[in-house]
Design a protein that fits this description.
By secondary structure, the protein is α/β, with parallel strands linked by helices. The protein contains ten helices and 14 strands. Keywords: Hydrolase, Membrane, Metal-binding, Transmembrane, Transmembrane helix.
Length: 401
């Protein structure tokens, strides 16, 4: 641990000295030195103090969010500035080498003020986006309308409306009232059915307790169903003993039940209209290791007619390619979440990009294989970075035909 801290300290010191070259080029004075180094020392002092005194077993997620936010606001933009400086330094070195060989000019080129200004400005813009994502971005919930024609959908279910939410991560929010607008937006959709596809908490069932009243306001004419996500199992938490950990899932299921959600654990439910049936399947988390693989589609589909129209809730989209799309049960629509779109990226109508695509090729929106669909919800809440830049929190509204 001590060696790691020393290594990081040395790395950050090199980064700061390097980035200071841009600051010095623009503002070279004694006041400029103080303006740069005093806040820098204070910030790093806070970071290292917070890291050394952080107690994972305290169940307090706010302190982690503060530390992570400071790193993203203060350190990440400096990496961007360093990229500008590095590109300029490579060009300066090449120019010097050429002039040294081809001319009598052996003077090493000085930094250009313009490049330093561009670098510092870009870093400031990135820091602004990160800060905006924390203060406002995570509350910019958007309802996305998805119209789908499903194979074998009974005629009585044409126009049926399903709302999907996913990845609430209630422990990442301090005040339930700040999410009231999102709950109102869900109810505005006048859903027939509400499906929650996992990760109601970060680790501990108690995180959801302050949000029970809020989420109990969500209305679905035919009910509200839920499945477990990887965070709901509490595998990332610190527990006093094995019994406390074992009791976490039953407590979470009970808390979600108080909010009106029925948990499906490798099982299914039938929605019936005038004798016609729509099957809702829910499996436990199934992800690529190290994520748990508790999902059992065979068990969830026991007794379901092969020709029936089925909608599957499965938290991790990896399940679709690995199991669902080639499974004989023939699921027409799979609903997932998990990726959050990494809470950072570009999410336009005709162009989407996020670094998470390198881990999850199917990371957001609708994907089709034959007559089978996968929809990956961008998530309702946040984890790690307590904000969103470019990829907004999502409420998905499916209109079936």
């Amino acid at each position: 641990m001590q060696k790691t801290v020393i290594f990081l300290l040395a790395l950050f010191l090199i980064l700061e000295i390097y980035v200071y070259q841009a600051f010095k080029t623009v503002y070279n004075s004694q006041n400029g030195k103080l303006l740069y180094w005093i806040p820098t020392i204070l910030v790093y002092g806070f970071l290292f103090y917070s890291i050394f005194t952080y107690d994972r077993g305290s169940h307090k997620y706010l302190s982690f969010q503060v530390v992570f936010s400071v790193i993203l606001i203060f350190v990440l933009p400096k990496l961007l500035i360093a990229i500008f400086l590095l590109i300029e330094d490579i060009i300066r070195l090449l120019n010097f080498g050429y002039n040294y060989v081809a001319t009598d000019n052996h003077v090493y080129p000085s930094r250009r003020k313009f490049i330093s200004l561009v670098g510092l400005g870009s870093g400031a813009v990135l820091a602004g986006f990160v800060l905006d994502g924390i203060i406002f971005g995570k509350y910019r919930h958007k309802a996305r309308i998805v119209r789908l024609k499903l194979k074998n959908l009974p005629s009585n279910f044409k126009g049926y409306k399903i709302v999907q939410i996913s990845d609430v991560h209630s422990g990442s929010f301090q005040n339930p009232k700040n999410l009231q607008h999102a709950i109102d937006l869900i109810n505005k959709q006048n859903a027939d059915l509400v499906l929650f596809t996992g990760d109601m908490v970060n680790n501990y069932a108690d995180e959801f307790v302050p949000f029970i009243d809020l989420f109990s306001q969500i209305k679905g004419k035919d009910g509200k169903f839920a499945v477990l996500g990887n965070h709901d199992y509490g595998e990332y938490g610190v527990w006093k003993n094995i019994d406390e950990r074992k009791n976490n899932i039953p407590k979470l299921i009970e808390n979600e039940k108080k909010a009106g959600f029925e948990m499906l654990r490798n099982e299914h439910r039938i929605i019936e209209r005038n004798g016609e049936k729509l099957y809702i399947l829910g499996v436990e988390n199934w992800g690529i290791p190290p994520f748990p693989q508790f999902g059992d589609l065979n068990k969830a589909s026991e007794g379901v007619p092969a020709e029936a129209c089925k909608i599957l809730m499965s938290h991790d989209p990896s399940h679709f390619d690995a199991v669902v799309k080639k499974h004989p049960v023939d699921v027409q629509l799979t609903l997932s979440g998990h990726t959050h779109g990494m809470q950072f990226g570009i999410d336009l109508k005709n162009f989407r990009w996020s670094p998470v695509k390198f881990k999850y090729p199917k990371w957001a929106d609708l994907y089709q294989t034959g007559d089978k669909y996968l929809y990956v919800n961008r998530g309702f809440g946040v984890i790690g970075y307590p904000g969103r830049v470019g990829v907004l929190p999502e409420i998905t509204v499916f209109e079936l035909s």
